[in-house]
Design brief:
By secondary structure, this protein is α+β, with helices and mostly antiparallel strands. The chain folds into 3 domains: 3-108, Arc Repressor Mutant, subunit A (Orthogonal Bundle), CATH 1.10.10; 126-153 and 187-233, no CATH class; 161-185 and 253-417, no CATH class. 38% of the residues lie in helices and 22% in strands. The chain has helices at residues 3-23, 26-40, 47-53, 65-84, 126-152, 161-165, 171-175, 210-217, 238-251, 269-274, 287-297, 357-367, 370-377; strands at residues 91-93, 102-104, 180-184, 187-193, 198-202, 226-233, 258-263, 276-280, 300-303, 308-311, 317-319, 332-342, 348-354, 387-396, 399-410. The strands form 4 sheets. A 7-stranded mixed sheet has the order 7-3-8-13-12-14-15, sandwiched between helices.
């Protein structure tokens, strides 16, 4: 390897190593540094060498060294995708089927990018295989573009750094010791085929990620009929909510604390445990991990097919009109949901959500509004930081025009994680 390339690889590797340190994942950090060193030497190790060199990921009695190494390689690839989601320019990648780290520069394009370990994946036709690589690269690029737009088009308003910092919503993030991960709501899709080709793309409310797909679809005899296309979708209207959240983070001087941006269908327990989480998206796009936490802590029950929320205690239903048509000139009603929940390791989970796009946008606007947060603060009693609030939103053409608080509940801190039903 030429000296200039080796130096550039080492410099970029130092930046990624720092990000890994913030995630507090010692095993992934050891794996990354080992691969970086052998890549600088111009060689590629085998699975056995990796298992021996990286203490702590050696195989158990049930697993082979190769399978254990492949699992951690997949996690490292995913971490790199998340790290570069908001960082355009040169990036480090692990090429498909290889155990080495390569530095890609913009002029070289996206060759070698891989969303995960595909050693056990079903072979797809060339057109579908190109689609798998393109779709998640496109989603990552769109998310990065949205955040960049938010930073460039600075939104002025009644933002006040000191007011926001003292609010029950943001204060736990500022005073905490964890970095922040932004999670974008999305919906997992899979293909249905008849014979050779995929003829239809499906969504199942019980399937939020590839693990659900394997357990709920393939395990029930659907392996010959259904196929994982590595495909998900999210609303383009989330750019407005993301802009508001990013502006608030910039005002609070917290934007540098954001270490990753990833879709909810790719959220894993490691990110969930080692970061503060800001979720932005629809209530039916939280994924199983976040969705289970909200369902456990919330006083509401979500009916995603209708779309509506049920107050478990009073029985009152809050139903959105978004199924009536987003492009109509008739005034409609949506609902926005905002919450601050305790995480499993004393981290913080902030939910900026709603039943439809208008509700989500209004909650993001509220999160950066001194007046809105002051109104919310008036509902608190005591020092409890955990809460959820539901707002009715007036909407037309998917645009929210006004919001009114209709329900507020305090949430019992760490009791959410104490076990039991």
């Amino acid at each position: 390897m030429e000296w200039s390339k080796a130096q550039a690889l080492a410099e970029e590797g130092s930046r990624v190593d720092l990000a890994l340190s913030a995630r507090r994942s010692e095993k992934l950090q050891r794996l990354f540094n080992f691969l970086l060193e052998v890549s600088r030497q111009g060689r590629q190790p085998g699975e056995s060498e990796i298992a021996v060199a990286i203490r702590g990921i050696s195989a158990s009695s049930e697993d082979s060294p190769g399978s254990t190494v492949r699992v951690y390689m997949s996690r490292l690839r995913k971490m790199l995708d998340q790290h570069y989601a908001v960082r355009p320019g040169p990036r480090l990648v692990i090429p498909r089927g290889e155990y080495r780290i390569e530095l890609l520069t913009p002029e070289r394009g996206g060759a070698g990018l891989d969303a995960g370990d595909t050693s056990n994946a079903e072979a797809l036709p060339p057109s579908q295989e190109r689609g798998r690589q393109y779709k998640w690269s496109l989603i990552t690029a769109v998310i990065a573009c949205n955040i960049l737009i938010a930073a460039i088009f600075w939104v002025t308003g009644d933002l006040g750094a000191s007011t926001l910092a003292k609010s029950r919503l943001w204060q736990p993030l500022i005073s905490g010791r964890y970095p922040t991960a932004i999670i974008i709501g999305d919906h997992f899709l899979f293909g249905e085929r008849n014979g050779g080709g995929v003829e239809q793309i499906n969504r199942d409310f019980s399937v939020s990620n590839e693990v659900d797909f394997r357990n709920r679809i393939l395990a029930k005899g659907g392996s010959d009929r259904f196929v994982d296309l590595d495909l998900a979708y999210t609303s383009s209207n989330l750019v407005f909510a993301l802009r508001s959240i990013w502006t608030a983070l910039r005002t609070l001087e917290m934007s540098e604390a954001v270490v990753s941006v990833s879709p909810a269908s790719r959220l894993d327990p490691e990110i969930f445990q080692n970061n503060n989480i800001i979720y932005v998206g629809p209530l039916d796009g939280t994924g199983r991990l976040l969705g289970n936490v909200i369902a456990r802590a919330s006083a509401f029950e979500l009916n995603a097919t209708d779309p509506q929320l049920l107050d478990k205690k009073s029985g009152r239903r809050y139903q959105s009109d978004i199924r009536a048509g987003a492009d109509t000139a008739i005034p409609l009603r949506d609902y926005g949901y905002i919450a601050s929940l305790p995480g499993p390791s004393n981290n913080r989970i902030i939910i900026i959500s709603g039943l439809g796009d208008a509700g989500i946008a209004q909650m993001a606007d509220l999160a950066g509004s001194s007046a809105g947060l002051a109104e919310l603060a008036s509902k608190f009693s005591g020092k409890n930081e955990s809460f959820e609030a539901l707002y009715q939103v007036r909407t037309m053409y998917s645009q929210g025009y006004a919001r009114k608080l209709v329900a507020f509940h305090s949430i019992a801190g760490q009791a959410v994680w104490d076990g039991g039903r």
